[in-house]
Amino acid sequence: MTATAVALFTRDLRVRDNPVLTAAHRDGAVVPLFVLDEGILAGGGCPPNRAHFLAAALHELDTELRDIGGRLVIRSGDIAEQVAAVAAETGAAVVHIAADVSDYSRNRERRLRDRLARDHRELRVHTGSLTVIAPGAVVPANRDHFAVFTPYFRRWATAERRPPLRLPRHLDLPPIEPGTLPRPEDLGSGDRSPGLSTGGEITGRKMLRAWLSHGIHDYARDSDALAADATSRLSPYLHFGCLSPTELVRRADASTAGGAAFVRQLAWRDFHHQVLAARPAAAWSDYRDRAIRWRTDEQAVAAWTDGRTGFPIVDAGMRQLRAEGWMPNRARLIAASFLTKTLRVDWRIGARHFLYWLVDADLADNQLNWQWVAGTGNDTRPNRVLNPLRQAERYDPDGVYVRRWIPELADLDGRAAHFPWRGGAADYPAPIAECPGM
Ligand code: FAD
């Protein structure tokens, strides 16, 4: 008789290179399980953009599982109770889950372990699913994590890593009522961005193929060029685990300039995860307390969130965020610097807005990038200020990006679109702050 194991999916929604699925499959029959976790959903943890992406990703995961003889089993409610019930129903002795870094996920892990132990069942936690190098696998002397990226990257680049895992050829699923795949509205309510990308491993792999055969070649040169839209847009697929970072690093040719630059960005992702794993409180508290006195200015915050600050390069990014649930890194940097360094508004206010709208919203990457920009995080130059006008001239020299997102600027040619206060833009607000170079 073969044993049965539960593969509990969380944010590793793929069948390829999935340590959880592979380990469960090794045990014998597999119950691929996803629980609509009331602990996340009731707390508003799944805003509309992510709800749509997640619902689509679960559908694609179910399709992929069916192709190899399985299907996705869905339950909803308290995650520990639901997993225990499925394990009892199917006689699974072991539940496999991917390691994660937030306080919530660690607490979830503890609750699952304790609940399963009561029934003499075991929880096995797999590192190396969420990131290429597991948090804590490389550490400096006398510390539990790296606080600066460059030395981390040196160690990361030479650290031992596992090879990508093979897709299981066939899954045996024990008899079980599968439950119903959720609709987006079962996960979170509200309006989504009209230009949102579609979630899932099938869609993510199509994008990855296109990226590796075309986009990546010019990445080192163009990744910051706002009009070029020349980054991979794979971040939501990485956040939900529809794609494996281990596979991405393996397939990107790091001997080319584009491949090397792309791999370096993936290392940034691992870097932030190892910081948050070691300092979970940094999700909402200053990683480095610099005693900054933030300003309260509700009108300025409203102008910022609505993309009506009067600075086109800031507003274009903020409008793209609403329209697509995504922004390029350069636009995120400019918008975050404007809020925290120009308006002197607390980074947590901006981070919360991004967490609501970004389809790739990720506690490690979002909060720690915000802190990096605000000067409370891992930047070795915490006082740097990104002047929005200089950034505009450098990264959108012909004004193409700002005209794409701000129709009020359509009549301003070339770089004039970055200086609407000099005339020619009706219906566009006056700047809400002063800034050198106006
Ligand atoms: P690419 O340029 O194609 O990069 C490839 C991958 O590398 C990305 O998909 C991402 O996983 C990783 N990556 C790239 N840049 C960074 C970075 N600076 N830090 C960590 N990982 C990186 N990224 C998120 O995934 N989720 C977030 O919530 C998030 N919030 C951010 C907030 C601010 C204020 C800033 C400045 C950056 C934030 N980033 C976040 C990082 C980065 O902007 C996005 O990962 C990137 O824009 C996603 O687009 P892409 O997939 O085309 O990236």
Describe the structure.
The protein has 438 residues and is α/β, with parallel strands linked by helices. Helix content is 45%, strand content 7%. The chain has 3 domains: 3-129, HUPs (Rossmann fold, 3-Layer(aba) Sandwich); 131-163 and 202-278, Serine Threonine Protein Phosphatase 5, Tetratricopeptide repeat; 298-423, DNA Cyclobutane Dipyrimidine Photolyase, subunit A, domain 3 (Orthogonal Bundle), CATH 1.10.579.10. It has helices at 19-27, 38-41, 48-67, 79-90, 103-118, 149-158, 184-187, 201-213, 219-222, 235-239, 245-251, 257-278, 298-306, 312-324, 329-342, 347-357, 363-374, 388-395, 400-405, and strands at 3-8, 28-37, 73-77, 94-98, 122-126. Strands 3-2-1-4-5 form a 5-stranded parallel sheet. Helix 6 (149-158) packs across helix 12 (257-278). The N and C termini lie far apart (76 Å). The mean pLDDT is 96. The protein binds flavin-adenine dinucleotide.
Helix content: 40-55%
Basic shape: globular
Average residue pLDDT: 96
Assembly annotation: single chain
- The fold-level CATH name of the largest domain is Rossmann fold
Tell me, what is the CATH class of the largest domain?
Answer: Alpha Beta
Count of all domains: 3
Uncertain residue ranges: none
Structural class: alpha/beta
